[in-house]
Amino acid sequence: MLPIQFAIELETAIISQLDKVTVTEEIVTIISLIHTSQKNFLELLAAANTINVDMAAYPPVDESNLLGKDVAWQQLTLQKEVTNASLQSLLILWQTSIEIDKTAQFYQQAATNSAHPQTRLFFNSLSHVKKILLRRLNGIIQTYCNHYWGELGFAPFLLGKD
C-alpha cells in the first residue's frame, strides 16, 4: 500500500469516527470545524493520489484552505471560561486530539521514508498543518482542564510538556 492511500484510509476513518460520536451542544462548533478540516484533507489527498510525481507536481498544501478561516478558530479560543463544562465533551476532544496527533506522526514518518523530494515536501506540509490543527484543539482542551482545575483545587491530570 502506498503512503498516500494509507493516508486516505486514515482520514476517512477519522471522518467516520467524528460522524459516529454523540457531540454535546457545547462542542458542536469545534467538531464541525474539525470535520470540515478532515474533509478538506481527504479531498487534497484524493487529488494527490491521481498525480504521478515524476510527471506533475502535487496540489499545493494551503493551510487556510485545509483548516478554515482563523477567525472561526479565534472565536472558539476567546472563550476564556467554560460555562457548561462536561467531562463527556472533554473526552470527545481528547480522543479527537489523539487521532489528529497520530495522523501528524504518520505524515512525518511518510515524509521521512519517501525517496522523492516532492513527496517529502508534500507529507511534511501535511504534517505541519495537522500540528497546527492539533495545537488549536489542545488550546481548547486546556480550557476544559483549567475549568476542572478550578473546580477541584488541583490539576486533575498530570501536567505534561505541552
Primary descriptors:
single chain, 162 residues, mainly alpha, 6 helices, 0% strand
Fold blueprint:
Blueprint: H1 3-20, H2 28-49, H3 63-67, H4 70-78, H5 87-112, H6 117-152
Helix pairs in contact: 1-2, 1-5, 5-6
Q: What do these coordinates show?
A:
The protein is mostly helical and 162 residues long. It contains six helices and no strands. The chain has helices at residues 3-20, 28-49, 63-67, 70-78, 87-112, 117-152. Helix 1 (3-20) runs antiparallel to helix 2 (28-49). It is elongated, with a radius of gyration of 17 Å. The two termini are 34 Å apart.
The Cα radius of gyration reads 17 Å
Count of helix runs: 6
Number of domains: 1
Give the quaternary arrangement of the chains. Answer: single chain
Helix content: over 70%
Classification by helices and strands: mainly alpha
- Count the E strands: 0
Which consecutive residue ranges, at least 5 long each, have pLDDT under 50? none
Shape: elongated
| N-to-C CA distance | 34 Å
Main sheet overview: none
